[in-house]
Design a protein that fits this description.
Elements lengths: L6 E6 L7 H14 L4 E6 L1 H4 L6 H17 L7 E5 L5 H10 L4 H5 L2 H9 L6 H15 L5 E2 L6 H18 L7 E2 L35 H9 L16 H14 L3 H7 L5 H28 L1 H30 L7
Helix pairs in contact: 3-12, 4-7, 4-13, 7-8, 9-12, 10-12
Length: 334
């Protein structure tokens, strides 16, 4: 907790293109949280290099992601929006926490196993210690809460264990973070395989709606969305494709699921898919226009990057100096 407000930390990787799932499932919710919490939203570019990146592309994607945060409605005066790589405390604290994290704990991380299988030619130490850097991200700002999906719950549990271990030795240094349980965002699935979530790394371009997709592309992808042969628009597990489309339409129009089912009772799949596509276009249009506007104003964006990096650095340094003193590092002479 900083002052009177509880602290919330979250971030997204500067790889791939953000999808409709990222927007409806996370980014939209972030906007409402700045009223309740002191928020730190990071572009986690340090995490990105566990996989080989083209340097120019990584820089471009990181700036685009930070711009999207603002375009989505995150006020950079209320929310600390910054690049992880601009705050050296993330890497410094990660090294210290590495020395309080056990190999056995890291060996149990299922995400490491999944990523190692995907990148068998580049199983590097960073990929293995990735959860420790994530712990540093969270603990550096004394975060009280962290919004996490199912795939990150294991990492948050490790963060809690490491923080409790450190506190047991050195006293009350770190806030023990809790998973954020609030209004959950829509769980948006792949348009081509509704058994899995919509992903920005999906190899099938028709599986995901990207936030910068133009209207024609969006409509075309929805027309190709996988459904079934039942010819009924019902919200049930036996029809995962239709259920996913109902979730998307519901999230974009703010209509309840039952209302959506009633609205399209007796209608064909073609008509329904078109309506969903048009609803998505109407939601993304203002976001895209705002993104284009912010992108053109280089001085405005550079100012936000500079100011928010300084703000993040200030709070990160407070924690880092405390940790360095506790473990016995010599004090800095100014």
């Amino acid at each position: 907790m900083i002052g009177e407000q509880k602290v919330l930390f979250s971030g997204m990787q500067a790889t791939g293109n953000l999808t409709l799932g990222n927007y409806l499932g996370a980014l939209q919710n972030w906007v409402s949280l700045s009223e309740e919490y002191m928020t730190f939203y990071s572009v986690v570019d340090l995490h990105s290099i566990t996989v080989r990146q083209d340097p120019a592309e990584l820089r471009s994607r990181a700036r685009k992601l930070l711009t999207l945060y603002i375009a989505a409605g995150l006020d950079p005066k209320k929310n600390c929006i910054y690049y992880q790589s601009h705050v050296s405390g993330h890497a410094e604290l990660a090294w210290i926490l590495n020395c309080f994290t056990y190999m056995g704990e890291l060996n149990r991380m299922t995400q490491f196993k999944d990523k190692a299988a995907k990148h068998a030619d580049n199983i590097n130490a960073g990929l293995f210690t990735y959860p420790v850097l994530m712990a540093a991200d969270i603990l550096l700002y004394q975060a009280d809460v962290v919004p996490v999906g199912k795939d990150q719950q294991q990492h948050l549990e490790l963060t809690r264990n490491v923080a409790q271990r450190f506190n047991a030795i050195y006293g009350d240094v770190f806030t023990i973070p809790e998973a954020y349980i609030g209004k959950t965002g829509a769980s948006i699935k792949s348009l081509q395989d509704p058994a899995k979530k919509m992903s920005k790394s999906d190899e099938n371009p028709n599986a995901s709606i990207y936030l910068m997709d133009d209207p024609d592309t969006i409509i075309r992808k929805f027309k190709r969305a996988v459904t079934d042969s039942e010819a009924q628009i019902l919200y049930r597990d036996e029809q995962p494709g239709i259920k996913n489309l109902i979730d998307i339409y519901s999230a974009c129009t703010q209509k309840g699921v039952e209302d959506v089912v009633r609205e399209f009772d007796g209608k064909g799949y073609g008509e329904f898919k078109l309506a969903v596509g048009e609803a998505v276009v109407s939601v993304l249009k203002p976001l895209q226009e705002r993104f284009a506007q912010i992108s053109r104003d280089k001085d405005y964006l550079d100012g936000i990057i500079r100011e928010n990096a300084q703000k993040a650095e200030y709070y990160a340094t407070k924690t880092l100096r405390k940790v360095q003193k506790k473990v016995g590092f010599p004090e800095r002479v100014h």
